[in-house]
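Troubleshooting: if your tokenizer reports a length mismatch, compare against these two reference records.
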Amino acid sequence: MIVLVAVVMLFVVGAMAALSIDVVTIYTARSEAQLAADAGALAGARVFANSGVTSDAGRRSTRNARNLATMIATQVASQNVVGGRTLKTTEITVTFPNVGGSAFDTNPHVTVQTQRTDLPTFFARIWGRTANTVTASATAEAYNPSGEDALGETTIPVAPICVKPWLLPNIDPTGTSSTNTIFDSTTGAITAATLVGKGWPGPSNTNGLFSLCGGDCSGGIQLVGPTTVGGYYPGAVANFPAPTQALPACSSGLTTSYQLAVAGCVQQPISCGATATVNIDTTTYASSTGTRDGDTVAAAECLIHYVTSPGDSDSIDTTTIRPPLQFLGGNQNPVAGAVGNDVMVSDSLVTIPVINYPGPPPAPTLANPSVTVIGFLQVFLNPSASSIMPPPNNQIPVTIINMAGCGTSATGQPILGNGASPVAVRLISPP
């Protein structure tokens, strides 16, 4: 009996070893494959979020966006280790369930599948099994709320961080008419569908980005007219508190909370939608340079790494005139190897809120400086490599990269944005 038990125990221990070691190895590799798929899907969706494709009503550039998203998603997924080695590109598949043709909407999906068929076994070899297969799949979405109402769905607001304290009226800033809107103030749908890639000053509007009220609204809130299109109202410090961490080194020369909010990242999320109210700054503004626009330029120079000469800051790659837009690293770009090369993100990319003015409710006043955020523009500051700072009249040239509208109908828990981007990126596949 003792001999029989010893022989049986040998096989039982072997089976348990195979079950414990090989199964744990498979489950570990399966988790690693899932992490790789998640990372790849999020990276691919971020290409759509940062590119402006979700704002391009013509859908003319979805092929380029798919190609770029495929490349980025594959690169990110292939850097992950699954079962002891990194994935091969042939083991990664990228698809776009709702991108291309008539199925495309403002919320493109990216699906990444990872698979490894040669995962080695250990104790299970005694039964002749030498390899196992693990697969994983993840789908991520670039969520732009602008199209939800048009699709018959409830619009959920977004809430990006690092939003600059520039409250832009809901007026096409590239033109001269004070009646042409950017978003439908109720639904958030994009009403100026050709703005991506355009900017101000331009052929129609010679203004750059500048502050209304002469930079100080304590004496009254200036109403927008044809000559002031492209101007913004300064946001109240309570809504855009000066950041205290991760400020660039050059911010030591900035003296006002407003300048720090421009040069750094305001961590407080700014939401859009029915309950997203903020205030115009109606306190007396104490400038460090003499004007708020002068302060804005000084802080913006710090933000975009402009030191002394053209070419210091990043610029828009003029060979990519349609989304997905790409950017060239400037001479002072802090990322090693970025200088002169295409980059997907840049410190020159900033998000500014669009408010429900003109339009209901009545125009803001000193007695009631509250306004509602109905959307966001993501713009590129000083987009030309040859531009000299400061610009004329301290009005900064900008180019529109992305648009995301919520309108006053968006309700519910806001989705946190993709960092500073107003287009949120999120996994929508089951865990």
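Reference record two:
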Amino acid sequence: MKPRVTAVVGGQWGDEGKGKIVDYLATDSDIVIRAQGGDNAGHTIRNEQGKFALHLIPAGIFNPDSLNIIGAGTALNPKTLLEELASLEERNVDTKNLLIDPKAHLAFDYHRVLDGFQEDARGDYKIGTTKRGIGPTYMDKAERIGLPARLLLNPDEAIKKIEFVLERKRRAFPSLADKDELQADYYRDLLEQAKNRLQDIIKPVNSIIHDGLVNGKSFLIEGAHGALLDIDHGTYPRVTSSNSTVGGLLVGSGIPPRYLTKAVGVFKAYQSRVGEGGMPTELTDTLGDKLREAGQEYGTTTGRPRRVGWFDLPAAQYAHQINGFTDIAITRVDTLSDFDELKLGISYENGEFSPDDAELLKRKAIFENYEGWGEFKATSFEELPESAQKYCRTIEAAFADAKLTFVGTGQSREALIVL
């Protein structure tokens, strides 16, 4: 039997509602892998057990029959993970089906301090980072001074490695040298706690993944952020620090590309973006305020308000070019129910979509008007208001060789139309 490998990627600047799609697909997946990003991202999951905000743990944790893996491509903050595990266990969620790839890289509080310092120093060139330390973690990884998760199994060795790294940081950032977070002893208790709690779940996963592929298991790889924030193909320099495209998920999970069977691109029925950068369809007026409140567009991790705007077709088509989606999910259709008239960004006045953020800032969107659809109840696509069907089909048509497979119509797990 051939394995089934599905990758779920956000098609915009993150916050597309991937959690709902991943939660649905995880109910029928043997192995779920979080492949990249860190606790600067979050999936909001709503199911029969309640509402959960996950930052590191794969959404398959709610399926006791699936194995969940925090993959090699992630930036793993052990403090956040311990808190997340405790929070889930307090709510009677079984977390025994979780493993950590020893090759994942660790994010610590000193990474957060450096992240905030570097972001503040950028002045007018701010990226809009969450200051969670993810960028500096990946910088250390690339510099070959990063700390793999396997070090959590040996706190004494970990302290030595941390001291080696921090000695370099104190020299490079003398104004921060006296901060507690830049002293190795600051991390002793955390390392002991992490070893005690995590030592049984940090283990090599490559053979587990390989055996699953050989034996026809079903895999789900979940991405964080969105394709337009990819470090190589996103709107540079205002991007995240990892590869948030389908290709990045395969690398971060350790699954060879030839096994990929489905790539799901998740798009909100409108647009949002956190931080700085170009956004040609942005709404900066009271209509934008209305849309932000209707969608409760505030960061899962930070709580800060997101910028919002109408759906941007050129940006979505670019995301498709760099991912090769087979399936499309359009979420938050219900969020637009209170708008009498909608707009869809179909092109730009002055050029094509550009991943050069300086160029994207110059683009001005050309819009097409659509009739609103009001409140509705629908369990099938045919039950959606006609105007909502037309709106979704227009977006689907922009992808040519990808099909509309999911439409999100509410917050609950059941509020998902599967075509």
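Descriptive notes for reference record two:
- DSSP finds twelve helices and 18 strands in the chain.
- Residues 4-102+204-264 form a domain with the Adenylosuccinate Synthetase; Chain A, domain 1 fold (CATH 3.40.440.10).
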